[in-house]
Amino acid sequence: MMVIADHPITAKAHTNIALVKYWGKLDNQLIIPQNDSLSLTLDEFYTQTTVQFLPELSADEVIFDNERLSESASKRVRTFLDHVRQLAGINFHARVITKNFVPTAAGLASSASGFAALAGAASRAAGLNLNRRDLSRLARRGSGSATRSIFGGFAAWQQGQDDATSYAYPIDEQPTWDIAVVALVLNAKQKKISSRVGMRLAVETSPFYSAWIKASQADFETVKTAIQNEDFELLGHTSEQNAMRMHALTLSSDPNFTYFNADSIQAMNMVKELRLQGISCYFTMDAGPNVKIICQGADAERIRCYFQSSFGQDQVLVTRSGTGISISN
Ligand code: 2P0
Known about the structure:
Shape: globular
CATH architecture of the largest domain: 2-Layer Sandwich
Structural class: alpha+beta
Bound molecules: ligand 2P0
Mean pLDDT: 95
């Protein structure tokens, strides 16, 4: 029998960086993607969330980085809690306390770690004892990229065709080869277009969308092979190509837009310059101007110093492969 936890439950989930990107939904409600995606979970950036369902609450309370969120700001969290309540057959409201652990106010915190941690804490607090596959399905309902943050190391999100079949699975949770990511914090001043809106525009208006699906499925297979063979060059090259193919969708949407800013372009050129100098490294970018550089651990310090001289000390963060979700009892 399901029993609501009589004490707060805390979950910790790390964010992830997609090497083969998710960009577009088949089903906006259930968050079923148009393609398989593949990521590396990162150890430095994570969210810690505590949830308790309490009979005395008359509404959900959401406290984010020590501030109580308004009704509108907490809408996505409350909708997610409604889904958890429905699964568990309960109707108590919840107190949710969540904190993002990111080295600086960097714009690197993501809905991936946020909804993965919320799925873990809320489901256990509601008395649901989900296995990791079902946790990833639940996290998916909050945010697509959260599906992959249930697992550590390299994880894939299989597209599936419905709620039951769209989930993440581990590829290599503890890679024995030393992969590092150097993250450049290049904050946007202009208001950004959310991933949700951006990918919808791509599906509906980019004439390149079907080519993207075809290319990303091939990239997915290639990156999987590269992980199996510990082939860093193949992994890096394919990930960089895949990122630019995704960004070509923003440029070819109507209205067109881009997540690049001037610093992003400078950073991408600097990565190419490093390659010319014989350092094997590759860039990727998501729905914002920050550039993430995929490299081997042995080169991370040198790459960090190179970028710090242009972008400043606090703007360059080094991280490695992180672990999957952990949930208190
Ligand atoms: C990814 N991104 O695979 C891609 C690459 C950003 C660029 O998943 O609408 O916040 O909540 O499912 O997961 C970011 O989009 O979007 C994302 P929703 P999400 O990591």
